[in-house]
Automatic annotation (TrEMBL):
Residues 216-377 form the Glycosyl transferase family domain. Belongs to the glycosyltransferase group 1 family. Glycosyltransferase 4 subfamily. Gene3D superfamilies: Glycogen Phosphorylase B (3.40.50.2000). It holds the Pfam family Glyco_transf_4. Keywords: Membrane, Transmembrane, Transmembrane helix. This is Glycosyltransferase family 4 protein. Residues 25-206 form the Glycosyltransferase subfamily 4-like N-terminal domain. Coiled coil: none annotated. The keyword Transmembrane helix applies. CDD domains: GT4_WbuB-like. It comes from Bacillus salipaludis. The keyword Transmembrane helix applies.
Length: 409
């Protein structure tokens, strides 16, 4: 009899974005490894619910028919409220509904795999571990609330204290911890007192089929920004950069979403930036195909210490597509881009410097080809899901075996 796994994740197919793509790949590849896998998630709502009325986002027929193993709970509150109180209510509603589902769920599982943030979803994972008597794997995709503090969202000391306490408890009670950034490991060890051997790095990545997509650069002298436009992104820098590129008649396409998109769009309209274009959201396949056609991909994170530890999904997507990166990032992201010679980084977050880097890539095809090839080679070695899922399989097998030994004892 195959081992049973329950994945708990707020984000899942058909949602766009790194979080949903990560959960989808783990679900599909664990099934290919012979496990019986179920998913507890929400109805698709990122970046908005209305978007998923378009059937093009439901582009995986196999997943569309797996209604018995993929359970979606309905959420009434608005995730994207500017009010931190309303956001907390939203996260708490998700948690409560997940707890109710687990409480009345009659199925048995060997392992629960819960992915955060939001950190409150982790409560459902802890509850499942106790009530279902199974092993708990905690997948940490972001340091929450550190990231929110870094962008000035969290100012309430009492709330911060409670969330940090919850974060520490989850790490201590998890049987194994998985992170998508190597830089998170030391932070968790230092702040939660967790042994390093309990933590494993499994990055986001690409599938083999995505690496086989056409990567010939067909759009000349054109750049793309693909991904979130939220509090973590340096949107002010992107505005300045867009204006400078527009002044030089260089086109930039924005495939973006998030809290700051409207602000960015209004800026472009007010400044009459005719060379800046906002594109509608795409499916992952469409997005990768489009990114592959540009000569430069942009990335810009707010210059805060917490973001030195992250590796945005858009960086991996650009590298997958062989699109040279021009960015303003530091820490782990910078180390990969510069260390692997996959792009050019402005340490000073200087838009003039970034424009010069873009022009340099435009004007030197040999440089562009080297950056593109370096990026794709790095992804092939380090960021292929079919390879990295083996690490998760080893963790699952060791945890199931440990659980059996405890039961025997």
């Amino acid at each position: 009899m195959s081992k049973k796994i329950l994945i708990i994740s707020q984000n899942f197919y058909p949602e766009i974005g790194s979080a949903a793509n990560r959960s989808k790949n783990i679900y599909q590849l664990l099934k290919k490894e012979g496990y019986t896998v179920s998913v507890l998630t929400t109805e698709p709502s990122y970046p908005n619910k209305k978007m998923y009325e378009d059937e093009k986002f439901w582009d995986d027929e196999a997943l569309n028919h797996e209604t018995e193993t993929i359970k979606r709970i309905k959420i009434t509150n608005n995730k994207y409220s500017q009010s931190i109180f309303n956001r907390l209510i939203y996260y708490l509603e998700i948690t409560i509904r997940m707890l109710i589902f687990i409480l009345f769920n009659k199925r048995k599982y060997d392992v629960v795999f819960v992915t955060t943030p939001p950190i409150f979803v982790g409560i459902a994972g802890l509850f499942a571990k106790v009530t279902l008597r199974c092993r708990l794997l905690l997948d940490i995709r972001d340091l929450w609330p550190e990231s929110l503090k870094g962008v000035g969202v969290f100012h309430q000391p009492f709330v911060i204290f409670l969330v940090k306490k919850l974060e520490k408890i989850m790490c201590q009670y998890a049987d194994s911890i998985i992170v998508n950034s190597k830089a998170y490991i030391d932070y968790i060890v230092d702040h939660a007192g967790i042994p390093k051997q309990k933590i494993t790095f499994i990055p986001n990545g690409a599938r083999h089929s995505e690496m086989e997509m056409e990567s010939e650069k067909q759009i000349k002298n054109k750049v793309v920004y693909a991904g979130n436009l939220g509090l973590a992104q340096d949107v002010q820098l992107l505005k300045e950069l867009s204006k400078m590129l527009n002044d030089q008649n260089i086109s930039i396409d924005i495939i973006g979403f998030g809290m700051k998109k409207k602000e960015f769009y209004q800026f472009v309209k007010q400044e009459n930036l005719n060379y800046v274009r906002f594109l509608s959201p795409r499916t992952r396949k469409e997005c990768l195909q489009l990114i592959s056609s540009y000569q430069v991909g942009l990335v810009a994170l707010t210059n805060k210490e917490v973001f030195e530890m992250v590796l945005p999904g858009k960086i991996i997507d650009y590298m997958t597509c062989g699109t040279p990166i021009v960015g303003a990032v530091s820490g782990y992201s910078r180390d990969i881009i510069c260390g692997e010679k996959a792009g050019l980084i402005s340490d000073a977050h200087n838009p003039n410097e970034m424009v010069n880097y873009i022009l340099e890539i435009f004007e030197h095809p040999d440089l562009r080809e080297r950056l593109s090839e370096n990026a794709r080679n790095y992804v092939k070695v380090n960021f292929i899901w079919e390879n990295n899922i083996k690490t998760l399989v080893r963790i699952i097998e060791s945890q199931v075996q440990a659980h059996k030994e405890v039961d025997k004892g």
